[in-house]
Write a structure and sequence with these properties.
Oligomer: single chain
Number of domains: 3
Number of strands: 14
CATH superfamily of the largest domain: Histidine kinase-like ATPase, C-terminal domain
Largest sheet: 5 strands, parallel
Radius of gyration: 48 Å
Shape: rod-shaped
Helix content: 40-55%
CATH class of the largest domain: Alpha Beta
Low-confidence stretches: none
Strand content: 15-25%
């Protein structure tokens, strides 16, 4: 970009002379024939790199014009070189410098001296503007850094406050969970006594008066007994669920083959009756709570036997893959996990319900089709998470289900 120079002289020949000398150097030269004209130009144009101005001019001298120029803050950065035909002495020289002049050039003008001095001042002007631009950039950077520091401090304060609120919420949640567990345990425990009396006296009533019951009475009585039985199963499951979070039993090295054998022994009559085939491959020994492993496998095997396809014998496969690095395709803290699979050939379910089935009281089938409380899989999830593990399911309608238990190896 061409550097602009303002030439101020009341004589056209002097302006032409300076223009002739400086034009080959590629400057953008603007001419003014008086101090007033120079001031008018400077009202709209501020980007001059240098002003070459005659001292002796009618109306406004060079000194007076310089004083008016430097009254404006935006013009004080423009250096002024006075051009004069007279030697005023040191006092007048100092006056010019006080007005803002940076140098003097005497007439008749030496072309080489003029070109040299102009190039020096132009270079100084350029470097000065570069410094100013750099300073402004540094100021902007510093301001941004200050804003970032303030924002970071504000973020840290917000994070501390959120963390404090989170800790308070965790404390309240833990307290509420403990109260809820105690309530569930006590309520379930207290409900068992009147329920036992209902079942006991209903059994006595049926034993004593079954001969005089008509068909409707017998059907109603059967419904009472089944409802009481479901209620008792539900209370039992709620009690089991509420016990897990409070279970402080130590984790010990447990042979899972033994646990599964005990569960299969409990289901021996059902397996024989339904002609089910259960294949169990060698399972590992893990650091677990053996008292919780039994209801875990009992629910999964029981569901596999319960949700079988009609006129089809159940086929259940139980096996393990040790030391998997991921769970559900995600890295889990870089730890090693043992995956235990429980596969069946039952009725299955739509995969979109794969997470929902582990919620409390969620059932995909009604009581008329399959009995249950909707707590079994929620209990399984809580047991596995109590062991810092994960449980998931893969299924397709009418093509069976696979439940995957991922337990930490250590």
């Amino acid at each position: 970009m061409k550097k602009k120079i303002l030439l101020v002289d009341d004589r056209e020949d002097n302006l032409f002379s300076m223009e002739t000398i400086l034009e080959p150097d590629g400057y953008d030269l603007v001419k003014a024939t008086s101090g007033r004209q120079a001031l008018k130009i400077l009202l709209t144009e501020l980007d001059f790199a240098l002003i070459l101005m005659d001292v002796k001019m009618p109306n406004l001298s060079g000194f007076e014009t310089a004083a008016l120029i430097y009254e404006r803050e935006k013009l004080r950065h423009i250096p002024i070189v006075f051009i004069t035909a007279n030697t005023y002495g040191e006092e007048n020289m100092f006056k010019g410098y006080r007005m803002g002049a940076v140098d003097y050039i005497y007439k008749p003008i030496n072309p080489e001296l003029l070109r040299t001095k102009v190039s020096v001042f132009i270079e100084l002007y350029t470097k000065n503007h570069q410094l100013i631009a750099h300073e402004q950039k540094l100021i902007a950077i510093n301001k941004n850094l200050e804003n970032e520091v303030k924002e970071r401090k504000a973020s840290e304060e917000n994070a501390k406050e959120l963390n404090r609120q989170l800790l308070e919420n965790i404390d309240r949640l833990e307290s509420a969970n403990k109260d809820l567990d105690r309530f569930a345990f006590m309520s379930s425990h207290d409900l068992q006594e009147p329920l036992r009396k209902i079942r006991t006296f209903s059994d006595l009533l049926y034993s004593k008066y079954q001969d005089i019951f008509d068909e409707d009475a017998t059907r109603y009585f059967s419904r009472i007994q089944k409802a009481a039985e479901r209620m008792q199963t539900l209370i039992k499951d709620i009690l089991e669920f509420s016990k897990i979070s409070n279970d402080k039993s130590a984790f010990i090295n447990t042979d899972l083959n033994t646990v599964v054998d005990e569960v299969l022994s409990d289901y021996e009559s059902t397996i024989q009756k339904e002609k089910a085939l259960v294949k169990v491959q060698l399972l590992p020994s893990l650091q677990v709570n053996p008292g919780l492993m039994r209801p875990l496998f009992s629910n999964l095997i029981g569901n596999a036997l319960k949700y079988r396809k009609k006129n089809t014998s159940s086929l259940i496969n139980i096996y393990a893959l040790q030391e998997a690095n991921t769970v559900n395709g995600k890295e889990k803290n870089g730890g090693k996990y043992c995956r235990i699979y429980v596969e069946d050939n039952g009725i299955g379910f739509d995969q979109k319900f794969a997470e929902e089935i582990f919620d409390m009281f969620v059932r995909l089938h009604g009581n008329k089709e399959y009995e249950g409380t909707g707590i079994g899989l929620a209990l399984c999830k809580q047991i596995v998470e109590h062991h810092q593990g994960y449980i998931s399911a893969l299924s397709k309608e009418n093509e069976g289900s696979t439940f995957i238990i991922s337990l930490p190896v250590q």
